[in-house]
Design a protein that fits this description.
Two copies of one chain form a homodimer.
Chain A (H helix, E strand, L loop, with lengths): L4 H14 L12 H8 L3 H13 L3 E4 L3 E4 L6 E5 L12 E10 L3 H7 L7 E10 L2 E11 L8 H6 L2 H6 L8 E9 L3 H7 L7 E9 L5 E10 L5 E5 L10
Antiparallel strand pairs in A: 1-2, 3-10, 4-5, 5-6, 6-9, 7-8, 8-9
Helix pairs in contact in A: 1-3, 2-3
The structure holds a DNA duplex.
DNA sequence: TAGTGGTCTAGACCACTAG
DNA sequence: TAGTGGTCTAGACCACTAG
């Protein structure tokens, strides 16, 4: 009823695409032809096509026309937060230690820093019902004069630790998700045995220029952790947020 | 140079947001005020704001104004495909068996089907260098008269198996990612020991009405598998695809 | 009531494509 | 050269917000 014309055109096209009437690779009618078909102005047609393009249904080739897109089956939306993604949420955080260390080769590689640059190492354990459920390690470049405030480190997630004054908008993140058999150290920290698998999530923070500004690894007890993801289509909103 | 006015306005705003000049929650100038500031028509200003909204920087409240968004730190883009996500890609697929079975309680729950409805069970092993790297189970509702073609099942991924005539656009998917200690059966199939962890990925396929049309579980050898995800910001494109 | 964003029109000029 | 999508203008009317 009250829905605007452009959304009706959008729905019309979605139906035609989902029913298979028009298929990936097909060129759709020209914008001017669509103006006639729907008896609307070109801006209205373009608004509809814009929405369809934003949701991945179509793409345009200037000078040629608009085409139906190949659906990307392999793309999912994943929500992850090392503090809140644990099944029974983290009630407490135990700060093991904060140290300024010389980087290992692994750290040099992951943070792309010179050998002689020092890094801040933060080690924490996440607790749920007083039981350790995750072991968390973060590396941040060390800058003289920037104090490491314990309270902040205690409860902050990685983006918050790293961002500080920078806008969180400017930070890119990368996750690597693996499984691992726990080391002896990890068995002790998490109170598990060698056959109890852990989920390992590496987080890398990058600035606007894709320079690493933080690297972290969180080891989750397998029985306390799972991730969920949905196809990007389930997320109908146009917004990335 | 050649970049259109509306993109310059977009870049201008991104800079102002990333620098912290304007912060989440702030209301920005009215569209008419922006028309004056940039000496452009309202449609051009709206185009800019549209792009910023699409990338999650701002949102609008009709009757009030446009506001800077809170960055969503926890949202990532994950690419997953049970056949291609394996580190050394799957060279061969071994079809163990295809059966029509009575659903177990777990299947009834996950596929939301009546007890007396039969389901097709497909069991496969993915091989890499002749070694089993993943064990794959799929359940699909059984419809009389729809033949199960072996060749298709051999190499198809889940969305392809399930979709058949339906458009892939219309299908929603859900993933659940866990770690697990391998059962005896799994140890035998994958040639691993109890202390070798496996990554378990459950896939659920849903139709437009969110009714389950397929359910599957893939068990990956932990040492042959990892997932990667990137923050949605790294993906600057407006398109979901 | 004045101001806001949402929708829509009817035009214009442009670079590009393809015969 | 005719047709395509991309950008942009200067208007209009609307529902909604908030004083």
């Amino acid at each position: 009823m009250g829905s605007p014309i452009y959304l009706k055109i959008v729905e019309d096209f979605k139906e035609r695409i989902n029913s298979g009437e028009i298929k990936p690779g097909d060129m759709i009618k020209s914008e001017n032809a669509l103006c006639e078909e729907y008896s609307v102005s070109r801006m209205t047609v373009r608004k509809s096509l814009n929405v369809l393009a934003g949701e991945g249904y179509i793409y345009s080739v200037p000078g040629k026309g608009n085409f139906i897109n190949e659906p990307n089956q392999d793309k999912y939306i994943l929500y992850f937060n090392e503090m809140t993604s644990i099944e029974s949420s983290v009630e407490d955080t135990q700060l093991l230690d904060v140290n300024i260390i010389k980087p290992t080769l692994e750290i040099i590689f992951n943070m792309q820093i010179p050998e002689n640059k020092r890094v801040v190492l933060i080690r924490r354990v996440f607790l749920s019902d007083d039981n350790p459920v995750a072991y968390d390690i973060k590396y941040i470049p060390y800058y003289r004069g920037i104090p490491i405030v314990e309270k902040e480190i205690h409860y902050a997630t990685f983006p918050e630790i790293v961002a500080k004054k920078k806008s969180l908008f400017a930070i890119n993140k990368e996750l690597k998700i693996k499984v691992q058999k726990p080391s002896e150290e990890l068995q002790e920290i998490l109170g598990i045995e060698i056959s109890d698998p852990v989920m390992v999530i590496e987080q890398k923070m990058l600035d606007e220029g894709n320079r690493p500004i933080g690297w972290g690894v969180t080891y989750f007890r397998g029985d306390f952790f799972h991730l969920q993801a949905v196809s990007s289509f389930a997320d109908k909103s146009n917004s990335i947020y």
